[in-house]
Amino acid sequence: GESVGLHLPTLSVQEGDNSIINCAYSNSASDYFIWYKQESGKGPQFIIDIRSNMDKRQGQRVTVLLNKTVKHLSLQIAATQPGDSAVYFCAENTESNSGYALNFGKGTSLLVTP
Amino acid sequence: NAGVMQNPRHLVRRRGQEARLRCSPMKGHSHVYWYRQLPEEGLKFMVYLQKENIIDESGMPKERFSAEFPKEGPSILRIQQVVRGDSAAYFCASSLTSDSSVIGNTIYFGEGSWLTVV
Question: Which chain B residues touch A99 with a CB distance below 8 Å?
Fold first, then answer.
């Protein structure tokens, strides 16, 4: 039958476990990548970013890994908490000196269960 | 709160009316971006502006949509003769510079304006 809407990929994890959210990008010229968290009815909230001259960056409880060979990005969340439940988007930017015309992925819904 | 401020947060318009969405960037930011988000989708870039200039409007629909960022006051996204398909969340974002290679420079989003066309 005809699809009438998109369904986000969903990742369900137990509280305290680690979460890994993946993202593939297609533009080999992309040089800046950002992960955003979006809760229902709110705007995208910056989590962590990484530039193409790096392959790993760590923040508080989060790590972003960049594999330019296979054009893959991942977000790892340590000790996932109920407050981490949200939709997570990766975004890429090209032409680093021409503003932030970001290209967003479709998003992954993270559900943290107690 | 010195974040990106958008208003109104929610707007209902009848088909054929005009919608005006306003955005004040973060303090000190002179680069403004508008994005649109349809339900269960990622954000789509629409337009990038600096004070009094449109830099990149490659994501803007060719008709009915316009944006401005005057010398004084907020940036405005204007949608004329709205149709049901314009129903979406419209997000404004701002950055200090246009260069994403600068360490510490990034883009910050507002909480969005939800437009419903009835």
Answer: 31, 33, 48, 55-56, 95, 98
Q: A28-73: per-residue pLDDT in tens?
A: 889 899 999 999 999 999 999 999 999 999 999 999 999 999 999 9
Residues B96 and A102: their CA atoms lie apart, in Å, by 16
Residues A46, A87: Cα–Cα separation, whole Å: 12
Q: Would the CB atoms of B98 and A99 count as touching at under 8 Å?
A: yes
A54 contact B CB<8A: no
A44 CB neighbours in chain B (<8 A) are 43, 91, 109
Nearest-neighbour CA in chain B from A1: distance (Å): 20
Angle at B42 between CA B41 and CA B43, to 5 degrees: 125
- Angstrom distance (rounded) from CA A85 to CA A113: 9
pLDDT in tens, B1-53: 479 999 999 999 999 999 999 999 999 999 999 999 998 788 999 999 999 89
CB atoms under 10 Å from CB of B90, counted, come to 23
